[in-house]
Write a structure and sequence with these properties.
By secondary structure, the protein is an all-beta fold. The chain folds into two domains: about 230 residues, 6 Propeller (Neuraminidase); about 80 residues, Sandwich (Immunoglobulin-like). It contains no helices and 27 strands. Strand 23 and strand 24 form a beta hairpin. The chain is elongated.
């Protein structure tokens, strides 16, 4: 099994927040969310049921009972199948979206201990896709594959032992990262984004509680569905990259770009810059694409430091000044 070292970023980010839409859930406690191209799927641990919602209309289009367990947690949609787990165990179940039962897998032999959340990594390379498993027993996010047989599980993300978390999402065009619904006394830390390199940021919104989370399929990683059990609601939120509110943080409006989205090149500028600054182009997994000295103006042509022509997607231009001030602006590259 592969193991990755989790390295915490010296810069942590928060995300600006916009509610796109919301709908009510009818009954109990949603412990997992998933999406396909048409519906938002929710699993309810009180009624032991699965619901399929039209998220925009707020109407329930599908309803059937969970099979295989009386305490379901987590939910992931993969290739017309819904995967969910048996709370407190390493047992994974699957059903078709018509409610028929497919089967189960015991993943304890792969070192999985206690599943609490599920997601699907939508990697660009279909041969490298995998089911993401949030294991509260080991505090590891596993990547189990191949889909449908699950004979291997790699360590993707190592989480702190103190982090009490629930459902997780996969990363659409953000291989190696996922959103995690967490318990926290600080409401701004109830949605956190982690990658295999460590903690990357929070959704800067004061959710009263969170339990289920899923990517919104037709969009990139920054559109997510979030279930808030205390309100019996599910929200579709958009999160844009920002910086946490501290005395050493410039605002997003200080950084400017010539066009966004862009296709060929973009110019990033900042006035009143201190000496010794640098700029980093970062992808959605937190990987630094390139780094350069920054004198207040920098033009990026959509290539990596070694000249690789990058694909369409979300990237971040992050400026770090010698005095400790940090700022970031979200860029969308369209080829």
């Amino acid at each position: 099994m592969k193991a990755f070292t989790a390295i915490l970023f010296c810069v942590s980010f928060a995300y600006s927040h916009t509610i796109i839409t919301t709908f009510d859930v009818p009954y109990g406690y949603i412990t997992g969310l998933a999406t396909d191209d048409n519906l938002v799927w929710a699993i309810d641990s009180i009624t032991d049921s699965v619901y399929g919602f039209d998220g925009w209309a707020g109407t329930m289009e599908e309803f059937f009972s969970v099979v295989g367990t009386g305490s379901p947690v987590g939910l992931a949609y993969v290739d017309s199948m819904l995967y969910y787990a048996e709370s407190g165990t390493a047992i994974l179940h699957a059903m078709n979206t018509n409610g028929s039962y497919i089967g189960s897998w015991d993943l304890s032999g792969l070192e999985v201990q206690s599943i609490t959340g599920l997601g699907w990594e939508h990697a660009d390379d279909r041969n490298d896709t995998g089911l993401l498993i949030g294991d509260i027993g080991s505090h590891i996010i596993w990547k189990a594959h191949p889909i449908g047989s699950f004979t291997e599980a790699d360590t993707l993300i190592v989480l702190p032992d103190t982090l009490n978390f629930h459902d997780i999402s996969g990363g659409f065009y953000s291989e190696g990262g996922c959103w995690i619904a967490c318990e926290s006394s600080n409401p701004y830390y109830r949605m956190q984004y982690w990658t295999e390199w460590g903690f990357f940021g929070t959704a800067y919104y004061d959710f009263s509680s969170t339990c289920g989370v899923a990517q919104y399929m037709p969009y990139f990683w920054d559109h997510i569905w979030v279930s808030v059990p205390s309100e019996l609601k599910v929200y579709l939120d958009w999160y844009g990259m920002g910086v946490e509110d501290d005395t050493n943080a410039m605002t997003d409006t200080d950084l400017q770009c010539s066009e966004n989205p862009f296709s060929n090149c973009v110019n990033i500028t900042l006035e009143g810059l201190s000496e010794g600054a640098c700029i980093r182009i970062i992808d959605v997994t937190g990987r630094t694409i390139l780094e350069s000295p920054f004198d207040g103006s920098f033009t990026w042509n959509g290539e990596s430091a070694n000249g690789i022509y990058l694909s369409s997607g979300c990237y971040f231009a992050t400026v770090i000044q010698e005095n400790g001030e940090v700022g970031s602006i979200r860029l969308v590259l369209l080829r």
